[in-house]
Amino acid sequence: MSASKNRFALPFTMQPAAAQPFTMDGGVALVTGAAMGMGRLYALRAAREGAAVVILWDIDADALASTAAEVTALGARAVPRTVNLADPAAIAGAAREARAEGPLALLVNNAGIVRGAYFWDHTPDRDIALTMDINALAPMYVTLEFLPDMMADAGRPRRILNVASAAGTVSNPRMSVYAASKWAVIGWSDSLRLELEQQGYRHLAVTTFCPSYISTGMFEGARGPLLTPLMTPEDAVDRAWRATVAGQPQLIAPGMAKLGKVLKGILPVRAWDFVGGKVFGIYSTMDKFTGRAVPDTKAGPR
Predict the structure, then answer these.
(1) CB 3.0 to 4.6 Å from 252: which of 60, 210, 298, 300, for a disulfide?
(2) pLDDT at 295 over 60
(3) pTM
(4) What's the DSSP call for residue 216?
């Protein structure tokens, strides 16, 4: 390569994060919010893909036991643990036990909750603090517990999947705190990806998944924007899994959700308000939201 071309070389790699393909064979996976919904499906997918151990974290002990039985039936060893992800000390304690299984091949930060209400109807502790604790801070705390071992052991490709939301890319009434939590996840997750790439940890890739509404019950009553039907949990998990295996930095799904992000970025605010609110109907998607009943301390699965 000529000297003139070298002057424009980027200081970090733009190549896939791992030189060899990612596989779950014989590896250890950890899934948060694993009791039901998408978390359960991620856990079962890891077992089907050959994981030796699938660590399952959730606050719902009964549903967690059911998922563990399904994982075991698929040939993997299930390690269920009730963990309140709103409590950093609980995360640290559970992580100490989980690290005994060895470095994770896959970490799925999936757990999340939503409070669908106008901002002034949120309570400081039960709504605002809890949503931020579980959706935004818990993925950071969980990742920090396992990241050093994943970075140090380059013997196989490793993956981190952070489940954010398309709500973190566009504003939406009745989702202010939820959207804020997901904006935080997107910014943190992609920054972590860049840091790992810059520092040469090519065996460890981070994928940020930003889905639109998914029919798990978490967003019961919500409707999708124009040409954006609710995704099934199976479709969402399959798309996220394939993106994670490929080391794809970010996946926004379905395609119309990606278009919304693009248009919001190029249109003036008031023009986007008209297009997003009146044409696509994004601003009214939560008008009939009821949601799924979630106890105050539940680090709920999607």
Answers:
(1) 210
(2) no
(3) 0.88
(4) T
